[in-house]
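[09:14] KT: can someone run the structure on this one? pasting the chain below
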Amino acid sequence: MIPAHVREAAARLGETPAYLYDLPGLDAHARSVRQALPGGVELYYAVKANPDPELLRVLEPHVDGFEVSSAGEHAHVSALFPGKPLALGGPGKTDAELRLPHHRLHVESPGELRRLLAAGLEADVLLRLNPGLPVEGAALTMSGPFGMDEAGVEECLPLFTGRVRLRGAHAHLASGLEAAELLRLAALLLALGDGYEEMNLGGGMAVDYAAPEARFGWEEYGEGLAGLRRPGQRLRIEPGRALTAYCGFYATRVVDVKRVRGRAYAILLGGTHHLRTPVTKGHDQPFAVLPEGRGEGVSEEPVTLVGQLCTPKDVFARDVVTSVRVGDVVVFAMAGAYAWNISHHDFLMHPHPEFRHLTS
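[09:31] RB: done, structure tokens below
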């Protein structure tokens, strides 16, 4: 679960937790994803998953473009890769964001389209759909305010002019889906978008935190898309978590081990203000213990791993059977997406973690 070079870097940890990014591992994974996709299917990376510049530099040769969802992400990626195609999405775009240069603009509502038209600019548009399709096995469904229902789409269609061009449709319906379910939804979406020259099928590829060695079925998915795509049609996908989750590791150190009402707790430096993924998704973050400590500890019994924050929600993993001592290094895997960038960094004003980009 933890590559040897990541373990070696973690063993050199000081008193500050650190994110360790495995750049060769990311490069190999991104290359394999790209190779699994057939011609006519474009690969964009959803920058919201992790905007770290070094990760983006590794991904850039493997992707056709980047999906950004704010002026901040737009400026960040544009500065790194001038001229790289950008798809601008996200609800609640400001007038200033609608004016940003882009390859494709994902329009969320008739009102947003009217504001775009009023700006008098040129744009190539995909209408974001919220079709109400049944989704099975999702970790998160993107229902509610995202995109448009059938009435919203019908309201948009007569509004297009020569300067604002309708290119197709976009849909991101759910997260945490396996290839078979994503392909089932893709077939339904492509039927709804029959006649569009472009369809963006979003992301949502499954990432299983309970099985760190597992991977989404990219070859199955690529073969399925090849069969669904009609000649001349351009399909696009926008994975985020499924590209970068596996390259990130959060390393920290045990500062205390104690029992409270019969339960064992390991207190770690840092906390969910650095790595919010487990509390956000309600899972145990996979980890490995590097036995370097000589202080108090427990041996092969259920232990709850927590951080330094003054909240009972500051939990990495609950009642996991392990051995751990004060001074040990704990390395949490699968910390390369929706981790540091979604965490409440300055709660209690603890130091920020270090960031190390491993090249070998």
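[09:33] KT: thanks! The first helix runs from residue 4 to 11.
[09:34] RB: yep, looked fine to me
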